[in-house]
Design a protein that fits this description.
Family: Belongs to the peptidase M28 family.
Domain Peptidase M28: 129-299
Structural class: alpha+beta
Distance between the termini: 102 Å
Largest sheet: 11 strands, mixed
Number of helices: 25
Pfam families: Peptidase_M28, PFF1_C, PFF1_TM
Mean pLDDT: 90
Subcellular location: Vacuole membrane
CATH topology of the largest domain: Aminopeptidase
CATH class of the largest domain: Alpha Beta
Number of strands: 29
Strand content: 15-25%
Radius of gyration: 34 Å
Keywords: Glycoprotein, Hydrolase, Membrane, Metal-binding, Metalloprotease, Protease, Transmembrane, Transmembrane helix, Vacuole, Zinc
CATH superfamily of the largest domain: Zn peptidases
Helix content: 40-55%
Number of domains: 4
Length: 859
């Protein structure tokens, strides 16, 4: 064996070198991303940028000591604590101001979701936000708003949603009080976000709203973990967030909100609707514990999650406060790399780059192919074409088919086992690609398979780039940014492959070098004969299977053309074509698994989730396909075993656990005139009806009815007679007092007063649309609403409402009040559900009130 042969065994494009390199690169990528997806460690106090993590953690224990929704007495206690913390700074620094805002009220109306099939609703809200203003050293500059809400839902202490956001703002108040900022800083620590983004609406009515044009909103839509840059309005704002030490974010989440894929909302939308520029920074996983009792301090597992939000908010906030620039720089495309750096580009930049690539790429590739052809160095057989496209189709159909199969057999398995689902899709994608290419290699072997498949891959990504560019131009979609990088990676690998062709010997089919025909005259027969007719006949019949020879007449051996013997360049091609695209798509996959998998309990469509997972798995293997025919066949056996095991598990395993519990939505209603009361549990079937309700004693022997819940994305909601609540003193008839008086045809005056509550409602019959509604001093738009939500900062306030409707006929409906405190034995039905709920399930609220008491009226 020659020295070159020994080198080729290690470095040539052969089975073992290619397999080992691919395994090492994929393993390094997956391991790095999974490790860096975890929370970064907490630095020593000396390296904490001048903020006090321990003090923030102490604040969190008070703020998140128990559920404190707007309509609860503990909410008042939390507010008092926050106000006292803010006022301590105002006493020390003359440029720090605190406003105990108990004057800003807001009214607004909005259309109902399509699923309601009824009129919209209007809201009247009396705010009690805690506002802090720190004057900047350059008061002529527009300020920066920092926002978080201090209320929680009625079923969770709110450590993540939004306790950590609140205590982060308290630390930022301390920091900027001690280090006066360049721009004025305003803090809106608001109340009432959970029940309709109400505190943000109230802030729009405050004079300090006019001081700022940029904002950072801190939120929590999970229960710990790493917070995510959920969305941003502009490139300039995204670049300020890039200053964070460990930024995590992807423009795909912003596109999901913009396109309505994600239905929930945050205060971000209120501020952007008011023409502000900003960032939405939020916790987003695990979703299964969101709005449940597990959104608590013990579930955080320490201070790391709090530190990550605190440090990121401080560094991004400082960058924004020091930024005197104006304008947003246009829509942003951004993505993180290993959670350690944030790449930020303007969408316009991507559009221009795409146009250049679409024009320059084909010209360059065509020029290289034409030159190689003219120099007789292009040895591409017609047998080689189409194998890449066929493999893509086969793998795509099978991989996406597996995702569809999961939705029919065990659609919620991704809820608790997202990794197993992803692994099964990855292995199936690999196996289907590999088997398809092996079949082509066996039936139609060619010497330059890698080069041909790279060209076909480039054509595919060029077509995708066209589609991406059109979407950028027409709908401002930035979430397909990875298409540009896949295209560039494939193009550069292809260019190297084409340059590699010039190292091959120039060749001809044998007939091209035959000597001229030699004529021999047969005098006896009087005829001319060709001495070498047989040789020329054979040459004339030559085709692509005819052996090749060089211009010097030497035969070209198969090994001279075989890509197996190429040393080094294939490795460079692999490094260009595979790692970075796989990094990008794996980062997307990890985010999507965490963000989407557990939204199925909220009513998300399983097909959307599984197709997203299948798409990520498919794209993770796709960059390696031009090299796949050199992978060792033992990988096929290993991956086939892994696929069989994970698929079997995914088809038959129980989809929930105590660490990934199913969320069920609770509400109790009571007719305050008759005392009849029902409890409803909303959640995915058959789990609620088959496994949960039969364990609850009050449901035994009763008629349990299930209907579609339009408030919860059409999830089934099951109802049965319940234990009576005790949410207010005295008999239930006295919990709500109202008077409805017809003042003229088509108009009425209604007064409402609830006991031990500050939240009541008016529901009008579906056939009636209120065309004008007034609460004192605050007229609402004539949008034809059928529901009015009333919120008071005072307890047991009497609301006075004037309503008008089209026509002179009467109107009927319900007057209702809400109760959201479950302390003691106030809501026995909730206590019963929580006592007998399986360990793999958790309760959360269905709507504003855990209990809604109502009385009917007719005018």
């Amino acid at each position: 064996m020659t020295f070159r042969d020994r080198v080729a065994e290690v470095l040539a494009f052969r089975t073992w070198p290619t397999t080992i390199v691919a395994l090492l690169i994929y393993a390094a990528i997956y391991t790095s991303i999974l490790v860096t997806d975890d929370l970064p460690s907490i630095p020593s106090p000396k390296r904490q940028h001048g903020v006090d993590l321990d003090a923030a953690y102490r604040d969190l224990h008070y703020v998140a000591g128990g559920p404190h929704p707007y309509n609860s007495h503990r909410n008042d206690d939390v507010r008092t604590y926050i106000l006292s913390r803010a006022e301590s700074n105002a006493k020390k620094y003359p440029y720090v101001h605190v406003d105990d805002d108990i004057t800003s009220n807001a009214t607004w109306a909005q259309a109902a979701p399509v699923a309601w099939k009824e009129g919209g609703f209007a809201t009247y809200f009396e705010g009690n936000n805690v506002l802090i203003r720190i004057d900047g050293s350059k008061p002529e500059l527009k300020g920066v708003l920092f926002s978080a809400h201090f209320d929680s839902v009625s079923t969770a202490p709110g450590a993540t949603d939004d306790g950590m956001g609140v205590v982060t703002l308290l630390q930022l108040v301390d920091y900027f009080a001690q280090n006066q900022p360049k721009r004025t800083v305003v803090f809106n620590i608001n109340n009432g976000e959970e029940d309709g983004l109400m505190g943000a609406h109230a802030f729009l009515e405050h004079p300090w709203f006019e001081l700022s044009n940029d904002f950072i909103n801190l939120e929590g839509a999970g229960a710990g973990g790493r917070p995510l840059l959920l969305r941003t309005t502009s490139t300039r704002l995204a670049r300020s967030f890039a200053r964070a030490a460990h930024p995590l974010g992807n423009v795909i989440s912003a596109d999901a909100f913009k396109r309505g894929v994600v239905k929930s909302g945050t205060d971000y939308s209120v501020y952007t609707d008011a023409a502000m520029e900003g960032l939405d920074f939020t916790f987003f996983k695990p979703r299964s514990k969101y709005h449940t009792k597990k959104d608590s301090i013990p579930s955080l597992g320490g201070k790391a999650a709090l530190w990550n939000m605190l440090e990121s908010s401080l560094l991004a906030g400082k960058a924004l406060v020091d930024d005197e620039g104006t304008g947003g720089g246009g829509s942003a495309v951004y993505f993180d790399l290993f959670g350690e750096a944030l790449a930020v580009f303007s969408l316009q930049t991507f559009f221009i780059v795409n146009i250049v690539l679409l024009v320059v790429g084909p010209i360059l590739v065509t020029a290289l192919i034409f030159t190689a052809y003219k120099q007789r160095k292009l040895y591409w057989s017609s047998k080689g074409w189409g194998r890449f496209i066929v493999a893509v189709i086969v793998s795509g159909v099978l991989t996406f088919g597996l995702g569809v199969l999961y939705t029919h057999i065990n659609p919620l398995i991704i809820y608790t086992s997202p990794g197993s689902v992803m692994i099964s899709c990855l292995t199936l994608s690999y196996i289907s690609f590999y088997l398809t290419l092996e079949l082509f290699t066996y039936l139609r072997p060619i010497p330059q398979q890698k080069a041909i498949m790279l060209l076909e891959a480039y054509i595919l990504w060029w077509a995708f780039l066209v589609a991406d560019t059109v979407l950028i131009s027409n709908v401002q979609l930035g979430g397909l940014y990875f298409v540009t990088f896949f295209h560039v990676a494939t193009l550069t690998a292809l260019v190297i492959g084409l340059l590699e062709q010039f190292e091959l010997p120039a060749g001809f089919r044998r007939r091209r070098l035959l000597p001229p025909r030699i004529e021999v005259h047969d005098e006896a027969n009087g005829a001319n004969e060709h001495e070498n007719d047989e040789e020329h006949a054979e040459a004339d019949a030559a085709d692509e299977r005819t052996p090749l020879i060089q211009a010097n007449g030497q035969a070209i051996k198969d090994e001279d053309l075989d890509e197996d013997n190429v040393i080094g360049l294939w490795f460079l091609q692999f490094l260009l074509a595979v790692p970075f695209p796989v990094i990008l798509i794996t980062e997307i996959g990890v985010m999507l698994l965490a963000a989407l998998g557990q939204t199925l309990a909220d009513g998300s469509k399983p097909l959307t989730v599984y197709l997203a997972v299948s798409f990520v798995a498919f794209l993770s293997i796709l960059p390696a396909v031009p090299f796949l025919h050199k992978f060792h066949r033992s990988l096929f056996g290993i991956f086939a075993f892994v696929l069989a095991f994970t698929a079997f598990y995914n088809f038959f395993a129980f989809p929930f656990s105590s660490s990934a519990p199913l969320k069920v939505f609770f509400q109790q209603t009571i007719d305050l005139n008759t005392g009849n009361t029902n409890v409803s549990l909303t959640g995915v079937q058959p789990w609620v009806m088959k496994y949960i309700i039969p364990e609850i004693p009050s449901s035994w022997g009763t008629n349990v009815t299930c209907t579609s819940d339009t408030l919860r994305a059409g999830l089934p909601s099951c109802t049965w007679p319940a234990l009576s609540p005790a949410v207010a003193p005295g008999h239930s008839k006295n919990w709500l007092k109202f008077n409805a008086t017809l003042t003229s045809p088509g108009s009425a005056r209604i007064t409402i007063r609830g006991s031990n509550t500050r939240n009541c409602r008016l529901y009008f019959s579906p056939s009636t649309r209120m065309t004008n509604i007034h609460v004192p001093l605050y007229p609402l738009p004539r949008d034809g609403v059928s529901e009015l939500r009333l919120w008071s900062r005072e307890w047991e306030r009497t609301f006075e409402v004037h309503v008008a409707w089209d026509g002179s006929e009467g109107v009927e409906g319900r007057v209702a009040c809400e109760w959201a405190e479950s302390d003691g034995a106030a809501i026995p039905a909730l206590d019963e559900v929580m006592a007998f709920l399986p360990d793999w399930a958790r309760v959360t609220k269905r709507t504003d009130g855990l209990v809604e008491g109502y009385k009917r009226f007719k005018l």
